[in-house]
Specification:
The chain is an alpha/beta fold. It contains eight helices and 14 strands. The protein starts with 23 loop residues before the first strand and ends in a 6-residue tail after the last strand.
Length: 295
């Protein structure tokens, strides 16, 4: 794996091939019992036990992998322990995670495109319907569900409480715009972590053409060059078709966005509004995210 910012090189100690028929979306390792859970587009959750590799298995490792190991004698292999097919019906499974401590180390949470969160423990499974579609809200909800299960609150009572939840305005508000467009208003804050969450929410929308209007990110602690590289990486990986950068930092580093078909940059909000052509965003879903001084 390629290290970032001085991180150590991580050698490949084992490769598990063939456990899933389609894309793998999520993998979780338990520090309590060492099991690895995986899930993906084949609607199946699989659990593997990791152990020291036998001599025969170790011999199958490629020579370049053995050279990459810090301790060549320590090799691992993963064996399938159990699997749950159609764990979320016919829907893809997007995430899977073990409970992080020993007390409930056998608890496993998963979430899928069916809009439900599944918690499996003590040989039984409980499904909870989530009223949110963004990753951050679902993650927060999982923490609350697990805490309430730990406190002995029944699944039915938990679901009743979930049904009364409403999205908090100020974050990721989806609004109807003109010209058959949708607007995601996330002007509440502007930092790299929040940008990633917002872009993930944008990527989950059904409209094919996606646009991002973004201002400079202030007080990030990074150099301007490093900051814009991080921003451009998030935008390019999301496959956004149209990008508008507002602020002197984005304007002076626009070369990092060459992989996007439609880009424009402005020194401030006023110059953007003066040049705005609403028809250019027709049929799009737009994420608007900016720092308060540039609103």
């Amino acid at each position: 794996l390629t290290p970032r910012r001085g991180e150590p090189v991580l050698p490949c100690v084992a490769t598990v091939t063939g456990p899933h028929d389609r894309c793998i979306y999520s993998v979780s390792w338990s520090k309590t019992h060492g099991f690895i859970a995986s899930a993906g587009a084949d609607n199946t959750i699989r659990v593997f036990e990791v152990s020291s590799a036998s001599a025969e298995a170790a011999g199958r490792l490629a020579e370049d992998q053995q050279k990459a190991l810090n301790e060549p004698g320590v090799l691992l292999e993963a064996k399938l322990v159990t699997e749950t097919k159609n764990a979320h019906g016919t829907s893809d499974i997007n995430s899977v995670a073990w409970y992080p401590n020993e007390e409930h180390g056998d608890w496993l949470a998963s979430g899928g495109d069916d809009g439900t969160i599944k918690i499996t423990f003590n040989g039984s499974s409980h499904f909870f319907t989530a009223p949110f579609i963004d990753f951050a809200s679902r993650e927060n909800l999982v923490h609350c569900i697990v805490l309430m299960l730990h406190l002995g609150i029944s699944a039915s009572v938990i679901q009743e409480g979930i049904n009364s939840l409403k999205s908090v305005p100020m974050r990721l508000e989806l609004k109807q715009g003109v010209n058959q467009s949708l607007i995601i208003d996330d002007t509440y804050n502007n930092d790299l972590a929040g940008l990633q969450i917002s872009v993930d929410f944008l990527s989950g929308q059904q409209k094919q053409r996606k646009a991002l209007i973004l201002s400079d990110i202030l007080q990030s602690g990074l150099s301007d060059d490093m900051l814009v590289k991080e921003v451009a990486g998030i935008v390019l990986r999301a496959g956004i078709q149209s990008f508008v950068g507002i602020g002197p930092v984005l304007l002076s580093h626009q070369q990092y966005f060459k992989g996007i078909n439609d880009t424009s940059f402005y020194p401030n909000t006023d110059s953007f509004l003066a040049d705005l052509d609403a028809d250019s965003f027709q049929g799009s879903v737009m994420l608007i995210k900016g720092a308060r001084p540039l609103q």
